[in-house]
Amino acid sequence: MKTLFSLLILLAFACMPLGMKAQEVKSPDGNVVVNFSLDSKGCPTYTLSYKGKTVCKPSKLGLTLAKDKHANAGVHETDLKEGFAVVDTRTSSFDETWTPVWGQYKQVRNHYNEMAVTLHQTSADRTIIIRFRVYDEGMGLRYEFPQQKNLNYFIIKQENTQFALTGDHMAWWLAGDYDTQEHPGQTSRLSEVRSRMDMCLNPAPGRKPDGMCDPVTGNSSTSLVSPTGMQTSLQLKSDDGLYINIHEAACVDYSTMHLDLDDKNMVLESALTPDAVGNMCYMQTPCKSPWRTVMVSDDARTMLSSYLIYNLNEPCKIEDTSWIHPTKYNGVWWEMIVGHGNWHYTNDLPSVRLGETDFSKCKPNGTHRANTKEVMRYIDFAAANNLDQVLVEGWNVGWEDWANMWKFDVFDFVTPYPDFDIKALNDYAHSKGVKLMMHHETSSSAINYERHMEAAYNLMNEYGYDAVKSGYVGDIIPRGEHHYGQFMNNHYLRCITEAAKHKIMVNAHEATRPTGLARTYPNLVGNESARGTEYEAFSGSKPDHTVVLPFTRLQGGPMDYTPGVLETDLSTWSNNPHKVHTTLVGQLAVYMVMWGPLQMAADLPENYEKYSDAFQFIRDMAIDWDDSRYIDAEPGAYITVARKAKGTDNWFVGGKCNEDGHKVTVNFDFLDAGRKYECTIYADAKDAHYATNPKAYVITKKTVKKGDKIKMVEAPGGGFVMSVMAK
Amino acid sequence: MKTLFSLLILLAFACMPLGMKAQEVKSPDGNVVVNFSLDSKGCPTYTLSYKGKTVCKPSKLGLTLAKDKHANAGVHETDLKEGFAVVDTRTSSFDETWTPVWGQYKQVRNHYNEMAVTLHQTSADRTIIIRFRVYDEGMGLRYEFPQQKNLNYFIIKQENTQFALTGDHMAWWLAGDYDTQEHPGQTSRLSEVRSRMDMCLNPAPGRKPDGMCDPVTGNSSTSLVSPTGMQTSLQLKSDDGLYINIHEAACVDYSTMHLDLDDKNMVLESALTPDAVGNMCYMQTPCKSPWRTVMVSDDARTMLSSYLIYNLNEPCKIEDTSWIHPTKYNGVWWEMIVGHGNWHYTNDLPSVRLGETDFSKCKPNGTHRANTKEVMRYIDFAAANNLDQVLVEGWNVGWEDWANMWKFDVFDFVTPYPDFDIKALNDYAHSKGVKLMMHHETSSSAINYERHMEAAYNLMNEYGYDAVKSGYVGDIIPRGEHHYGQFMNNHYLRCITEAAKHKIMVNAHEATRPTGLARTYPNLVGNESARGTEYEAFSGSKPDHTVVLPFTRLQGGPMDYTPGVLETDLSTWSNNPHKVHTTLVGQLAVYMVMWGPLQMAADLPENYEKYSDAFQFIRDMAIDWDDSRYIDAEPGAYITVARKAKGTDNWFVGGKCNEDGHKVTVNFDFLDAGRKYECTIYADAKDAHYATNPKAYVITKKTVKKGDKIKMVEAPGGGFVMSVMAK
């Protein structure tokens, strides 16, 4: 990765006297203003405003430390909350432009003003630093803990970072949970969070859970934060028209932050993920917290175009990134998700043991999909349709009893089932210019995965796999740990860095929500960490889902959402009665609004053949970009974006909307002047509707040039896409 | 390992009708009788008697299962305690003689009668088997769980195995603790356990803890089982003269058992070690519990000579055992334990980070003992004095902040400090016919150790180490787990089996107490798992300690007790004010009563030079045996034993006693008739006393022959040893 430092000016040093005078730092454009001060108890507080409007009222900062039994061995007990004095304040400015390995833009500007406040807690003789970085689109703040005589090891019992909001904002939120982000997304006023949660936590007699709409639904692993707990990134909109987004950046060696709402005062406070004994983080100085971020704008599109989260991460640490590449893939997956086949090989065994069960002597169940013949069919399809890789799930032994048993030795990640010829299939794929994509479901037995990881990556190298989809379904082992705790966050990162040594790209499902680490480790090409397309085969996701996720889940990194289900009625080919909650064209539009360098064409080859003309968009589309222009956007309502394909002059345009439909005019002002483009438009038909008539679409072609305008009408739950190819 | 099956007779099959009739199985000599029956609620019970005397009154058997949230996924909730019917009873007999790789005897007879009772629980349609093996010296029983439709995965919340005693026996006990066995040993009636524990748990105002005598003392990691909880092996003596010992055998994939005393009824019940969420064991059928063992005899010596625990373990699983050998060693260790030097290299850093801290740039503290010069001195001494290996602790980076910080990445086990030349030292040792012994302190960060283990073992292979002392000081990581839980028990075994692949012998300190696994994995050459000699440099151990341990701790396997501290007054060479609580000769005697293939000569070279004539016994002594004859024994009072050195005609005799002193006549009836032996006698001097005159000893030589008798007088806290060399 090339990083261009275009400007780096240390503007000023200012050593402030002790006292409680507020210190201020503004964004480069002056619109975002952060004020820092100590309150009467010496507690650090800040305020945040945008264009003169308050975003965060005085909000406290600090940390509660655990009372550890080894306190006498140097672990500290006094909280880092009060009794501070400012001993130093340094401000500076930074401006660089860096080149991401993949993403929305060819280059990214990282431009901020910084203020680092050094605080001394007299009673315990300890020093911490609170660092603010203020961007035109918001700010990040973090705690830093220098190595010092009285602060070497400490245990965080809770972080007490507040975001004191100005009112009862609209919120696009997810129930706060230490183990899953797959609850259905919610849209409500903040004041309604408690009653919505309560509806599930204390259901009225006879109330039937609504798996698509309820804030809390069954998941194989769930641990709620509180009756008003929410996940980040949390997208808010104030009544005075500000879009506010709260998240975190660079969560490394720390547990993931949730937000606990004081709904009397509309104050959000950090709620970290506990470990098995109820502690949040184990710290050794010198160290720092992740960045706590507040993005703010009066234009919703800024939420989507901003690289604030990435900018707050460290530059790329992988020297040679030539092996990291965009990947369009299909896979032996949707068949099983829908229930039309199985991951496991035999129905004979109620449980199996690695290294003991002899699968060659078991009776095949006949529904195991990861078999050589079926995989060859997917390889043929991928090769013929411009797809790079074929994911195969259920290729390795252990699926007979993998889920929900809290089983330790669940998979070895190297032993194929007897009907999966790993060598022949990789050879066949390579002969057709396609690669297989590896699958490592861990069943959340993280220690088992770590034991086998090196051998598993070696096997991938041996057969020519260069990407792995990993999974963390179910309760974590080490038992008592949560998916989003410090231990697991370190585990996920360890997987990424170990994989990088093997030149392997990682796409971790059920792992913690991303916080921009892909800037530092761009082989983290995707994550799930939200309710994916699979739910369309279970209890469904509402049509607005994919016009919320880009505002929330995608802040920290791309999602492997696995769209492209063109046969939206699953009952046409399986016993699954569900229908996808978009139009067919809406499925195509998801690729444009849910950007990322890893994109699955999730549907079956035979379904794509059925809709081959619409599938042409998937064949053609780029998934890595030199530029992105958001045409319009509103959380939960619509997003329209034009993107320029990496290294080409071609553009791809897409719009996606919620159940209300949407109209938008695409102005081709982004095209090169004096050049003609062949534009193929994939649109919902006039009478299309996600629920009643999803597969009605119209494909038209026209030549367009800079300045042309096309008015698009998106059906309820629909959208549109265009390929705009330079002639 | 060669196993000789001399006899294997399946005596009888007996399929019993449903019902509550008692079923009986006797030991081969008829002295031990076990009766099994179901009580009126269908709860399995057993009784045990010896020569007509009751040992265990009707005692219940069964398991309480956890109520798991994934019950609907096949995890069962109904307890395995009541509602059983007997559907099958099979009795058989077994007699084999096997050859241990090392131990007290050249060959071991494994002779028992067995009864396997198959029980069906109608309500849940589940079947379990309770298997009894009855030996002349006691019995073992275990639970077996066949794979079946309604029992595949289950979680044990508690095991409810009872040992209903006949009265208020004398007990040699340790406070029940999930994390340490280093509390001081206790001798009392069972009825006194509660008040002794209470003395520590609820101390009287102003009471000063007694670190040598109290049942509970400070340890870097301690988690008490209950106010009447005790460890196994528990040695008891009834008023009618029976010696009874309760322990377990073959604890594999299960958590370690403690004993909870109902002191109204004198009933002991199993108390397993919980995991981080309070569950005891995660089970997948087919599977089994460890054996629960009750040894019984009217001769205390039987407790010491019995191989019942080993016999209940599986035969050796290591095909080639030629690389496993007895090892006499010294080490760079006692200096640091006493406080005369440090494990760590620099005092400059309050904390360090693997891979980041550059020790070559740190200022050495000058007290780091694992330096090349010092280690060479130990190598020279070992080579000159018939010692096989030199342990070096503190050789690797990370000791600056290793303890009590719950630090995850604490050691890498491969990077030496700058002053430890690993290549040169190994080369030098090998040139002198000596090996270095590796040291892997894990600081209980088990996951970190597993991450580095393969590289660490490879390093050992590279430099020619073939034995490792490992350590588990402090609280376990994964946090919330205990030293004796199922996870850690599996970890310890994983270390042993992985080490075996590298032909490495393992001596794990602070690991769970052994249960005879060394029969199956004889590269487990030692464990600590009790209060070792190091405590003589801290708060002390009472003189009876080493005449209790052979009855208790040693039942499951040898202990790396690290005796041989001939300079019993530590203040003569250090600032440590403590004195060892034995006479000098008592230190030599420990080698004879605490048998094991790994024995340390713990004292400093200069101290051995000071007592070179007494040290001659350590130079000469064998540590692996073809035969052992216990001359007399009484728990906590005295043990006298004669042992025949493996593969020779030489004998070594030793006696050790408590603070009361002891007199014993050694009858040389074990010698070969018609042969003369040169006998060197190391005796306490007449006025010797462990407290007032410990270093008074007399060395005499005489020629002995079969039938000779020598009367020995052991001083308070003293003993004697003899080398009896065939002429």
The coarse silhouette of chain A is globular
Q: What oligomeric arrangement do these chains adopt?
A: homodimer
The end-to-end span of chain A amounts to 31 Å
Low-pLDDT sequence parts of chain A: 1-19, 71-75
Count of DSSP H/I helices of chain A: 11
The interface involving the most residues is between: A-B, 40 and 40 residues
Average pLDDT figure of chain A: 95
Percent range of helical residues of chain A:
10-25%
% residues in beta strands of chain A: 25-35%
Instruction: Please summarize the sheet with the most strands of chain A.
Output: 12 strands, antiparallel
Overall SS class of chain A: alpha+beta
Round the Cα radius of gyration of chain A to an integer and report it: 26 Å
Tally the beta strands of chain A.
Answer: 38
